[in-house]
Amino acid sequence: MKSHQVKFDQSSEAVQVPTGTLLSEAARLAGIEITQPCGGQGRCGRCAVQVQSGAVRRRSALRLSRDDIEAGFALACQSVVEGDLQVYVPPQEKIERRLTTDLTALEVRVPEGYSYERDQTIRRVRLSLSPPSMEDQTDDLSRLLSGLRQQTPAWRQEGFKNISVPLNLLRKLGDVLRMSDWQVTAIVSLQQASAQEVEIERLIDVLPGHVPDDEPLWGLAIDVGTTTVTAWLVDLVSGQVKAQVSEYNGQIARGEDVISRIVYASKEGGGQELRGMVLDTIHALIDTACKRVMGLMGTEEGFNRCQIVKATIAGNSTMIHLLLGIPAATIRLAPFVTGANHIPLLTAQEIDLNIHPEALVDCLPGVASYVGADITAGVLSSGMDDTTRVTLFMDVGTNGEIVLGSREWLVTCACSAGPAFEGAGVQHGMRATRGAIEEVWINASTSEPTCRVIGGGKPRGLCGSGLISLLAEMFMTGIVDKRGNLNLHLPTERVRDGEHGLEYVVAWAAETETGQDIAITHVDIDNLLRAKGAIYAGYSVLSDSVGVPMELIEQMLIGGSFGKYINVEKAVQIGLLPDLPWERFQFLGNTSVRGAYHALLSQESRQRIREIASRMTYIELSADNSFYEAFMSALFLPHTEMSRFPSVEAALNEITPV
After folding, report:
1. DSSP readout, 197-248?
2. pLDDT for 356-379, tens place per residue?
3. In a domain, 404, yes or no
4. Shared-domain flag, residues 296 and 228
5. What is the model's pLDDT at position 11?
6. Do 242 and 327 share a structural domain?
7. More confident residue, 565 or 476
8. Beta strand 218-224 pairing with 308-315
9. Of 88, 108, 131, which marks where a domain is finished?
10. What pLDDT does residue 29 have?
11. Among 298, 334, 364, 390, which residue's CB has the most CB atoms within a 10 Å radius?
């Protein structure tokens, strides 16, 4: 097969690739980062590069205008090499603002009644062993295990019975025993296996000397979110969170939603690449957390990631599969089955997690393909499983996961909302970074907008909260009708027929950082209506399936990082949230990592999460005809049945009296 040279402007050397190679693959070989938010499906248009010379064949030119194509622009994920090329890669979008709540460790309370001696599964056991002699030639390991078996700690009714010992520990055991004059501290784990009610005894490490009781023992709670990864570094002795860190999931560059990532993972080497990306993200967070703890301790030495001896991980089913390298293709294919909902206990070295190699890693249990451990952990931390009040718990994101119930019953479903509320699939959409419009107000008389921009300054695009706000304002001021159609009869130049169809201009070119108009198109509005319609249909079908009318929901809990940016009034006006009294809404932030934190501290909490997963009744919406009907009815602002949104109807009547 003939090969060609591809030279990228960001690289000093060209790469040699065969005919038919995707431009995105050529860029990867050249070490050039090109973001592919749709997972390389050619849907988002954000991997566009400019071919300055040479021949490519475009499989798709979606979101490229005629002028773009004439200027040489091509989608890297949809264009193949057919000759020597010179390629310009535009600056890639940088993430400059965290999506998670900017909390401090002081704001996380240790669970009431937490007792290290009673609740923790990782323990230190101080041992004073007799050295060997000519009369006692017992081997080192047997001597250590005998010492442990003779111990009956306060937190056990009996001594250790069958402790497993890793090979790496055996290799250093003799030196540690002799160096410490046979005075050592053993770190031991006693934990129930995830799938069966059996205890696992495991020796994690042997430290020289007797470690004081109040010396910190380190654990890690991790939430692997589709958008954001969060980690809490915890002192298991006191239960205190000593550092909280978060960062965008590196996998975003290969897909902004779970389906896009599953598609990318199915490509040759894609799964391994995605696994490496999320591990890199986690490791960077651990390093940052360790540095923060060293700052608190007032030392630059004496603490590192290898002192972390336990980790709990929450995340949706796809994220857990991709982290562990488990094929995820079956999650998106009927009948939508995971590789595993209950992952056995693992060690850090098994999954390449760069903490203590023998640290036990507990991936919390999920329920089904699209209801994962982030939701079971969230239900625990929200207290939903222990309340008598009828509660609707929801995580608004690319995959809208919903739980309805109380301590008596729990029913759950998931709806594919898509990444529109994350700014993807929208012409001028972007993540919640500097320059994103996050709030919009429109003058009903003039149709003129006023915007609030993250970081101040000139805007670059619209993030999710800005899109919700904008759509609500456009509807309430008559710029769009119930179907999302733009009103061309208004006395304003902002509503116009643009290159991609009808649109409303939010900011003129002279007002923006990019020098281009920022507008929302009819196609964008349609994508937003589909996203909000899927979420509304999800929880309305769920409530109908158990015979609980929406008005009987006593509290609505919204988890996830994005949730805290939602303006309740605006979200109700577009039909994203139900029309309930505002005092019933609670925004809880990242409930997933909080649930992982509780499971990290307490075996009882870990058991509760397992029980929550087993108690949940899962409804597969794709197999339910009523979901399609509810979805079609929700593709209006706020809904085809205005009686479901009396406050919106009343507000509209005040603006335009009937």
Report:
1. S-EEEEEEEEEES---TTS--EEEEEEE-SSEEEEEEEETTT--EEEEEEEE
2. 999 999 999 999 999 999 999 999
3. yes
4. yes
5. 81
6. yes
7. 476
8. parallel
9. 88
10. 87
11. 364
